[in-house]
Amino acid sequence: METKDLRGKFITMLWTSFATGIFFFTFFNDNKSFYNLVISFAISFMYSFVFIMGNYYTNCYLNSKYSWIDDTRTRIILGIISTLFVNVFLVFVCNYLNLIVLQKNDPANFLKGEMGMFNWIIVNVALLFSAIFHARGFMNEWKKASKKEVVEQKLIAKSANAQFETLKNQLDPHFLFNSLNVLSALIDENPEQAQVFTASMSKIYRYILEQKDKELVSVEEEIEFAKTYTALLKTRFEDSVTFEFNVKESDKLHFVVPLSLQLILENCIKHNFATSAKPLHIKISSEDGNLLIENNLQFRENIKESSGIGLSNIVQRYALLTKRNVFIEKSADYFKVKLPILTQKTTKMNTSNISENNAYEKASKRVKELKNFYGSLTSFCVIIPFLIFVNLYTAPEYHWFWWPMLGWGLSIIIQAISVFGISKDWEEQQIQKILNKQN
Questions:
Q1: What is the rounded distance in angstroms from the CA atom of residue 283 to the CA atom of residue 292?
Q2: How far is 311 from 336, CA to CA, in rounded Å?
Q3: How far apart (Å, rounded) are the C-alpha atoms in residues 91 and 74?
Q4: Residues 155-195 pLDDT 10s
Q5: Residue 422 belongs to what H/E stretch?
Q6: E strand intervals along 255-343
Q7: Residues 401 and 391 sit within 8 Å (Cβ to Cβ)
Q8: Rounded to whole angstroms, how far apart are CA atoms 432 and 434?
Q9: Among 20, 56, 53, 58, CA closest to 39
Q10: pTM beyond 0.70, yes or no
Q11: Taking the mean position of all CA atoms in its chain, how far away is CA 48?
């Protein structure tokens, strides 16, 4: 036990002993002497020490074996059983020391008459404080789990967004570098085409700047951009490269990762040779919910080492946005890339904060239900023993206390079934389910 915990328990014992000692000395002691006051405090401290430390170690043992969050059902059931047996045992030990050893009462009447009633009252008081003690531990663990899960969700969202931004920021210098290489070659080969290329390049770069902060763009926008880019390529390669677009109109309304077509088209040109005698044919179409880019394979030898930005960039960006995979297929004659066409523009990163807020609201509602239950249980444990005392003190021949105890007890059992899910899967009501790891 840590020093801080020990100090806290000791302070709790002192305050409890002080309060109960004053109470019993005032209302149940006829001889108001200093000696009896000290005895009253000593007896109260004995009860406080035994109950607080007994419940503390019982709680610690159960927590070490069963988690409130991962093994909630088992933890609750064992907590109720252990609380009942431990506190009844501790009550009888303390009462025996108090009533029989210290006060010299007849042991034969320990479970009968006034001593039997005293045992019953102390058992209920002990169970009340034990229930509060366990409820406090449960709420502390629940809050820790809630905060931990929310923090993890935020870290995941921030990490994904940072990674996505890093991948997008690779595109600007990458495109500019390759375009300037093409322009440099055209200036020597054909200055007039270089001017046309420069105008097209400015139009393309404007599109890149417009889409820079977007996670997804429509297929139609990407196709129009690809057509502008292929026109730029045709300026340099003329009839050495042909392009065919055959994308369904219905698919144009959906979404893909921005600049994905440009990177794949650039990849085709970079890794294949193209001549008038052996032209490179590139086809862009759609099928089965995918955007298909296919080219005949004319692998260029002695190619410079790749920068690793092209296809890997597309694959990583899709992985951050959807569970659907980018498919790459290669044979001796052709090379294919299938880009998933997404039907919803809202992505996991866009909805992370919304999902987190909704989950937090559900968790808050759950905590409120638990507070209401433990409030009802606490009231029951306080009021019912008081009613029993009043009944047996004023009219011991008629035990009317059974009616409120049974009625109220039944309502608490029904509330427990609703809150703790005894009739349904409890795991679905835990914070791990409420704050499920969508990422």
A1: 8
A2: 12
A3: 25
A4: 555 555 545 555 455 545 656 666 677 777 777 777 777 77
A5: none
A6: 255-256, 280-287, 290-296, 327-330, 334-340
A7: yes
A8: 6
A9: 20
A10: no
A11: 39
